[in-house]
Amino acid sequence: MRTPTQILGLLLLCLIGARGDIQMTQSPALLSASVGESVTITCQSSQNIDNILAWCQQKTQNPPKLLICYAYSLVDGIPSRFSGSGSSLVDGIDSRFSSSGSGTQYSLKISGLQPEDIATYYCQQAVSTPPTVIQATT
């Protein structure tokens, strides 16, 4: 299993094959939900980014936390309630987080929302230089 640092390094390596400016659009900008509900955040790119997309979570006064890379992989330590389209959970991320999508359309789903999920979420492409982060969803 790759560490978040290794994964970020791999994302940065992808910058070498830059495709020009890629515009990212994330929605909604603001999201209200209750504990236990499921929420979905979408991210659209102006051109195909081949799943070279990361979803991050940032809590007040904390650095960003990588949740999902390559559109489908949860990062280690991230709860499974998070999911994403086109990405992988990083080790340790709860499976409530999930991701889906491909090409230009991606989404992050959080199932069974918990109080600790209150944060700012954003997607980032790493196909072109500089990596694009769009307005975040809070």
Automatic annotation (TrEMBL):
Residues 22-124 form the Ig-like domain. The keyword Signal applies. It holds the Pfam family V-set. The keyword Signal applies. InterPro entries: Ig-like_dom, Ig-like_dom_sf, Ig-like_fold, Ig_sub, Ig_V-set, IgV_Light_Chain. Keywords: Signal. Residues 1-20 form the signal peptide. This is Ig kappa chain V-I region. It comes from Cricetulus griseus (Chinese hamster).
